[in-house]
Amino acid sequence: MIYLTHYRCAASTHTDVIEDNVYPQRVHWFPETYERVKSGMVYPAHVLASKVIDPKVIEYVKNNPVKGKTGFILAGGSQGWAGVRGKKEYTDESMLHYQYKLPLVCLTNIYAGRVASMFGVSDYVSTDASACASSIKVLMDMQNMMDNFGFDRFIILGVEDAVNNSTLEFFGQAKASLLYKDEESIKPSAFDSVNAGFNIGQGSVLAVFEKEPKEDPAAKFYGSYTSAEEFTNPLGQRPDGQGYRRAIEGALHYSKVNVDEVKIIKTHGTGTPTNNTAEKAAITSVFNEFMATSYKQRVGHTLAASGLMETGFLLDDIKKGTIPKILNRTEHDDKFLSYDAPAVDGKFMSLSAGMGNVYCAALFEPC
Amino acid sequence: MDFIELFNGVVKLAKPTSAEKSFAVNIEDRIKDLDIDSLDNIMLLMYFGEMYDIPEEIIRELQVETVQELKDFLEKNGNKFPTDVNVALKEVS
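The joint structure predicted for all components is written out below.
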């Protein structure tokens, strides 16, 4: 058995409108991550990561060595942090403009090595670029190494430089994120016939997984599975949710968990029409009795961090006794929750998807 | 301003969790004896270059043996000179 022993999550409910981007849009963010970036010596993603790199967790890892090996993965999403420009020529006056005077420490691989060294990890260090699925996708890699390669502990850091001019341009151009001009007519939501979509958000997550916890663990991790689907468009999703379904069934199979044991689902829940159709089709084709929620309407889509970070939020909410509703639903819905529901005991599934044909599912149970 | 204090402050920025091993005690300490690797070294120089407003093409060619030599180089080539350790560190962090 693998346990989630520590997790730290950072996301922001504070929003501002970035007006001087090619695609003006609202973002969830920590404005302080940009306070000093114009100097070129400080980088938003590093400031964001520092919000979850808790010295107490570092101390725990260093003071409690494990018998086997320890690995570190930076789930960094789809973006190289060095050289973020955007197609528009942004100037110093641009709200999100920044430069790099230390580009070598901004490469995800170098940064991963630096953070891993903080934890004293020297057995395995890697990065993952599976876009928005990254922090859940790496759990399958982790479980493989813990099952087969002598690893007893893994530290996962999920963080991406989500709120920058280039990323906002990308999502705006793809008609994925909500634009400021549409705010009057549509609100972020998921699985709804009226409201839909998401804003981009800054977020980060740090998680420690162990076979033999030295302290009371937060959750049992039963297993994870990642799948692609038969589709030619790496930006699209099959309407029948084949990728999601494969991921769900793979995770259940690996974990030896019956469908009926899973009562709560944390969806990817971007609320885009394409994802609504695909994810709902997959979930309803596998599960009968369930409550599904989404966190992206509350904190934005934090890209690489989202899957594992939202899993942390769900754990927090379950401990408080509530499965939160999906915000801005306009219809009553007992499954894709339109109201806050009492938490139930048992296992829950976290779903995640990423551009490039990546679908992930992971099974947990609060301890 | 105490240059040793400034040096150790910059070391903390460059090596956030293992700075103690690299703290200088004396101005004559040899930098290569301070457990500063090549990445740490680049970052140290970039931070000092920023603090003293020295162009990157000059600072990256810097080769000094001791903390004293670093101090002398910065004072000779700098275009601005920090007067307060805390203010100087805040400016680059």
